[in-house]
Amino acid sequence: MNALRWLHPLVVLVALTAATRQIESQEVPKEVVPGWKWTPDSIRKAVNAVRAGRSLQPKRWPAGAKVAVLLSFDVDNETIPLRFGQPTIGELSQGQFGARVGLKRVLDVLDRNRVPATFFIPSVSLALSPEMATAIKRSGRHEFGVHGWIHELNSNLPEDVERDLLRRAFDELTTLTGSKPVGYRAPSWNFSPHTMKILREIGVRYESSLMADESPYELLDNGQPTGIVELPVEWILDDAPLVDPRGTRYSPPRDVLQVFLDEFDRAYQEGTMFLLTMHPHIIGHRSRILVLEKLIEHIRSKPGVWFTTHREAAEYVRHVAGMQ
Ligand SMILES: [Zn+2]
Question: Which of 107, 190, 233, 294 is least surrounded, with the fewest CB atoms within 10 Å of its CB?
Answer without folding.
Answer: 190
